[in-house]
Design goal:
- The chain is an alpha+beta fold and about 150 residues long.
- The chain has a single domain, classed as Protein of unknown function DUF192 (Jelly Rolls, Sandwich), CATH 2.60.120.1140.
- It contains three helices and seven strands; from the N terminus they run αββαββββαβ.
- A seven-stranded mixed sheet has the order 5-4-6-3-2-1-7.
Amino acid sequence: MTPVVHAVLTLGLVLACGGRGREVDGWVEIRGQRVAVELANTVPKQSLGLGGRDALEWDRGMLFPYPQAGFYGFWMKDMRFDIDIVWILRERIVDLHHRVPHAPEREAGRELPVYRPRRAADTVLEVPAGYAQAHGWRDGDRVIRGGGAPR
């Protein structure tokens, strides 16, 4: 994809989503439901994730692509809202964690739980809590990705 085409697609997604502050890098589609996503494709972006934000809009998500499949752990450090975590391998959902609770405060001496998939995944999608269930997403569903930088 040329830089001009990428810029036009990104601008179109931002405008379609109302230009709501965060840059949109692409989209994913599952069961006909398209979600505008930000890519967490660097170690600093993956470490920060959605931490420190007040919310995630209903039709938005964050996509974490990895170079190889693994049992990547996610925790809710600095999270202020609950999310669904969707684990993907080769463009298919392999696991879901519904309504993962945020952890506004860590009790003294208590570690935050780490969430991992039951099967190895090469991509992880975070969406607002309840989104996956509201749209009937389940293991085996196909995931179509577009409009963003290749992995």
